[in-house]
Specification:
Layout (H helix, E strand, L loop, with lengths): L14 H14 L3 H18 L2 E4 L3 H5 L7 E2 H5 L4 E5 L6 E5 L2 E5 L5 E3 L5 E2 L2 E4 L5 E10 H11 L6 E17 L9 H4 L4 E17 L10 E8 L5 E19 L1 E4 L5 H5 L7 H8 L1
Length: 281
Amino acid sequence: MASEKITELEFLLSYDILKQLTGTMERTGCSAADIIEQALRQFLSARKDGNAVYLSAPINALVEGLYVENTTIAEVRQHGDFGLGTFNYLDGEMLLLDGRVYQIRSDGHVYDVGDDERSPFACVTFFSPDTLDDINGDSGVSDLATILDGLIPSPNMLYAIRVDGIFSSVRCRAASRSENYMPLVEATRDQSVFDFHEVRGSLAGFYTPAFMASLNAPGFHLHFLAEDRRRGGHLIDCTIKEARIGIQHVPRLDVGLPVTLDYLTVDLTRDIGEDLEKAEK
């Protein structure tokens, strides 16, 4: 039997990954090569079998005003290279695109985010579209919702959605930094609103079935980032000139439950539907 061919690879690791790798080597006695090979096999198998949407916490905790959790951006990125969310103290909108995390603050500026920053809520996946569709002609956000409704085969499935194109206009908002425990409907009452015209960029987000409303925002939830990576926010309205829509069908949902005193003691039995709709609109 012919011996298996071995290929040598050289690559750079971020400090946090290197620290985790070193710790695992010390704990298990395995070599770096063995651990990396095992991790790659697990990753490639997961990609082949279908990715999950990962929620760092159920959204009803955010609606009730829990804006401080211990989930780092490094942990979020372990679960996806695409998605959205927010940051501790509700400090702006999060957008994860092509593996890079952006923070869109209420001052209208976009900031790069370090792995040690923390988030009370993030929704991510590894994006690999199952379908790609091109649209042309001016389409408003209501038309976009209609188009997307026609592209998803069932309202009972999770979908990751990316729209890349040219927009005649985009209206976005960004949450302002808020004190912990202030209900979301109050914290989002006065938000910064931004209007962009004749802009090229990307929409990224998800469709979540209505029956998952206590876990994630139901319906379509999209954030915008301009191609120059200097403008963006939570999508309110837009008019699309031309764009390509990528949709990924995601058959599994993984939910993190924070182990913090605030989360363990908060009452999450209230129906948050009305408050969430007001905050999201």
